[in-house]
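hey team, just a heads up i'm posting the complex here instead of the shared drive bc the drive is being weird again. everything in one block, sequence lines first with there labels, then the predicted structure for the whole assembly after. its two chains so it's a bit long, scroll down
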Amino acid sequence: MRTKSILLVGVGGQGTILASKLLTIGLMESGCDVKMSEIHGMSQRGGSVSSHIRYGADVQSPVIERGGADLLVAFEKMEALRWLEYLRPEGQVVVNDARINPMPVVSGDAEYPARILEELTARADTAVVDAFTAATALGSPKVSNIVLLGTIVQRLGLDGVDWDRIISDNVNPAFAALNQNALARGRTLVK
Amino acid sequence: MKVLMTGNEAVARGAYEAGVRFASAYPGTPSTEILENVAKYKEEIKAEWGPNEKVAVEACIGASIAGVRTLCAMKHVGVNVAADPLFTFAYAGVNGGMVLITADEPGQHSSQNEQDNRHYARAAKIPMFEPANSQECLDMLSAAYELSEAFDTPVLLRMTTRVCHSKSIVTCGGRAEREARPYEKNPQKNLMVPAHAKIRRVFVEQRTERLTGYAEKNPFNLIEPGGSTGVIASGMCYHYAKELLGDRATYLKLGFTHPLPTGLLDAFCRQVEQVYVIEENDPYLEQWVRACGHSCHGKDLFPPHGEMTTDVLRNAILDAQLPAPSYDRSLVVPRPPTLCAGCPHRGVFYELGRRDLVVSGDIGCYSLGFAPPYRAMDTLVCMGGAFSIGHGMQRAFDLTGSDKRVVSILGDSTFFHTGINSLIEVLYNNSRTICIILDNRITGMTGHQENPGTGKLACGEPAAQMDIAAIVRAMGAAHVEEIDPNDLKSVGAALDAAMERDGPSVIITRWPCVLKRLDAAEQAQFGAPFRGRCKVDAESCVGCKLCLRGGCPALSINKEARRAEIDAAQCVGCGVCAQLCPKKAIWKEETV
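-- predicted structure starts here --
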């Protein structure tokens, strides 16, 4: 089995770390070798963040090369474009239609680009989802990250994994059902 | 039991399994989570935050001499702070095994330099391991303790960011509980006056010779047969190389990298046609290969800085890169980290930035004070250096007739780290640099570790809470002012009063980090902070953008309406923006 690469990107505070943690546990339980790499350290909110996840029979590097990602999942739409150079030309993008203004936009020094989704769709096999609306309808926008995890599970066809149990093992029991629903909802948002 | 672990978690697990009893560390990326995870084994291991790396190492030295296995962890630059005790303890050797972990940062993701701490093993004449993945972190740590006690030496375990922060699958074992080794008074070994140290100096050379023999037989140094191309690599570089070259290459994979196994190298070089030495930072292995009389490719092909990730190697070895989509990169706006909405540093940097000052900075979230819109920091070198560097600048300006005023600024954890020594320098020499301590009640940037000012220990138990103002006064500072950093008038007044003085002034801003979980006592002490929301009155706002000078990420200008807007999801009601508004169009609503 060729090693596959999934890149989760977003903005600090969007919950990419929990989503990638649950995903890597699921991949391990499905019998794969798994490696994951994150760069963290500055606890400030607002910076660009990424989680590299690689799985297969025998994974070497935990870091995805430029041009190496099979699936790019962006929790914020401009981040999809920032990291698009990491995608294989035949790779897929799932992009959350969410906008978080970076500091140069907040301060008025730059404009938030208008045609990001158009550019993404033109350049790669892109599915646009609205995780915020889906999560809010379920009860909390905070589970947007698990909605997006659901899209990954669907895209990768990871059906044989007991995601509900992995969620209940790893999140606050009070929110387990909400997160399980969010994952199920996410699976319906992409093919 | 198979578990996905980061390298840092696996090191902590390794410490548990190896029977470690005492651990000390100072937080620093990418090493921080090592001690945080060791602290989870609180029944078995006493885990402590040391106020800095030097005292953390010293505590571990003491515990080793007293007979227990100890672990000390720090980021690469922390070893500079800890080097003094380390170099001499290398002579004394251990009783209980001691491992020092250095977490290096190729790529400088969160560091001020990219130094290669493998040189420390050679300089201090101690053995070194370099794990490539989480399983090796666990396994090598166990081996390191055996080695430490067998060879009477502290051991260096060198990790890098990608080893520390990458997860891979680890098979865990149980804990090997160990009796403490008996303590026996032995000044010839443990008391390093010259007469004793000269004898230990000879011992160190003999030990290195014995360790060289050990390196040849160490199971972590091995030849992995494959194609005719030879690759010599240690740590994560081995995985990067194998990702690219797979079975096309034969690998000399080095896990024990000081002293190095010359015999194994000779055997390897006879098997392969050409040799690539793949390593991050300095040509540590390459120089050894060349010194042994072998030719190789190394820094002639690979960059001397940054990470040797697969794409870097692909470019250097194969002169190729993977195809990737092309797109309009002008659509990507930079997203730098920012001070949070409600960060108590914001008001201080606003007031500093609007004055004609030279600002000597330090390491913490507040390093971002250099960035727009504040542009309120001129220098930053090392932990705790702000006050002494600021003193030196002020002294030089004064000596040369310049009328520049220097303000020096650091945080609470940095104050306890080595900033306290820096302040002694200022006060003793009667410097007029203005010293600001940003006391946000936590070690912020590394993710909220306790420190001597927070009143809690590493595992959360209560501790003596050191009062920074009382300490500073006891050090002899005549002018000490404690202020609320969110009150711009008092920040400005404290700065202006200090600028009028010819001698030392210390300003302490006391307000918790907005991300800190406050206990009941802190909630009461700070009057239930972070519960308001600021609102903009659209009628009075004239869209002048003066409020943006506070640099709050919750605040922006709606271009169509030409009015300021506040993101209710981010705003915690610190009220700094309201003080910046000349039209009093921003007001605070208490939410609870």
